[in-house]
Amino acid sequence: MALLDVLGLITASPTLLLLVSSITLFTAYAVVHTFFIRRLPSNAPPEVRDNVPISGAIGFWTERWSWFRRRRDQSKTGNFSFHAGPNTIVALSGDKGRQLFFDSKDLGFAEGYAVLFGQAPKVKAHDDGEGKDDDLNNHFSRRLTYLLKNEQFRKKLPTLISDTQEAIDAIRDDPTGVTNPFDTLYRIVFRLTIRMVGPDEIADDPKLLEETLQYFEMIDNSATATSVMFPKLPSPAVLKRTYAGTRLYFMLENIIKKRAASDEKHDDALQYMLDQGDRTYKVVEFIVGALFAGLLNSGINAAWVMCYLATSPEWLAKAQAEVRNTASKYARDPTAPLRYQLDDVPLEAWEAEFPVIDMCLRDSIRLNLLGTAMRRNISGKAIPTGNGNEVIPPDAFVTYATGDIHLDPEIYIDPHKWDPSRYLPERGEDKKKSVHGFVGWGVGRHPCLGMRFAKLEQNIITAYFIASFDFQLQDKHGSKLAVAPQIDFNRHSAHKPKDSLFLKVAPREK
Ligand code: HEM
């Protein structure tokens, strides 16, 4: 058919004309976007070959770690470039890349996460203008630092312990004798986190706690690839996030109004923020931010540690001995059941006298801190990577996949296996590298602000659980598991296992 005939056919049918015009326009846009708008400077790390027009590299979303490793191994320097929608991203790897990533003051932390993690709900629209307003990052770190200080831990310890005991009693009283740790232990962590960073009204009320958790999970699930690449598109994920953020806003506003009307003064994080003059939207942003920073990692690891202990008689025996020894040092009644002896352990001992549980947590974090850490070049200049003339372009986002170090078989022997003995002085695998050989608690310019609290709650939950139960791991059919299942290393963050895991528990009386 001659070209003129084809043109004639198209122009004769309005539908066909519309279709062909749309395809032509889209193709033109894709060409301009790919070759002009998002063109990388020639000295940026090499662009990956699957950096498709418009959306960029799909592998970054679908199989993050496997994709990252393949692309890293194909690049001479180990660094490479790609796009996520309109965002240019440079991936760093290796010792030099890791050091630059974690130590450079030119790489902004919040600026990276704000766009590439894409979870924060926009609640400022509800602002009533009352109270003080200041820079978000500054505000967040200042409030969190105050709320996670020693005096707060000392004040809150009895409540953290009674919340934990209440949850352990509920597991003891459950007639099935089976518990899903990714549900029950995760919920303890959620409640303890709210105790430290939110209002008592939520921490004290199971219904409000449940509602808050649901809104948080809605916001967490909204970080889809589309919502990160095209945040202005009103996708279902973005709508859900907005809804959850709004509900949280009104829930807190209600609590604040009730407090004001009753002249009640509480001794909790919300009261502290109100006394500082914080606006409601700042309080919401703070609580959601603290939950993102703390809940997933702490909650998921608390559950995994128990699954790992259930399948490791050697480490369970060590942890039990540690709990017994520490409890007996402080117990006023050394003949009481172990779980009651723990009630007398002081804050200092909770923080310093559980090195075995600490090693168990450390290897769980190594396995569960998934995906990539995020940054953005905020210097306004190109940043040299230290490999010839290779640079991170101005404004580019920067990622580092934690698996690059945590799953490196040269450093961590048999890296996919949970094995706390790798941290014993004679092995010291996390000390093999001179720079940042373990990044599980953050390193360099952004060490974890919640580490002390996370370790404290981990020690409390693990010790009370071990003191209260004998337990074994089982799958959803009730079959005993001798080995904990493998984690999906391609996920973007710590997550609950796809196939639910359960602990069969038998209460201990001694
Ligand atoms: C097992 C539990 C936890 C783990 C494994 C963990 C891990 C980390 C890591 C790896 C970083 C650095 C991220 C990066 O460099 O991109 C970090 C930073 C941070 N963490 Fe944690 N974290 C935990 C619990 C918590 C808790 C409970 C809180 C607070 C409630 C918290 C608050 C923060 C904050 C605010 C930062 C950012 C620090 C900054 O801006 O410089 N974390 N954490």
Automatic annotation (TrEMBL):
Organism superkingdom: Eukaryota
The entry's keywords: Heme, Iron, Membrane, Metal-binding, Transmembrane, Transmembrane helix
Binding site for heme: 448
Pfam family for this entry, one: p450
One Gene Ontology MF term: monooxygenase activity
Names of the cofactor(s): heme
Membrane-traversing stretches: 6-32, 283-306
Cited Gene3D superfamilies: Cytochrome P450
Family assignment from sequence similarity: Belongs to the cytochrome P450 family.
Protein name per UniProt: Cytochrome P450
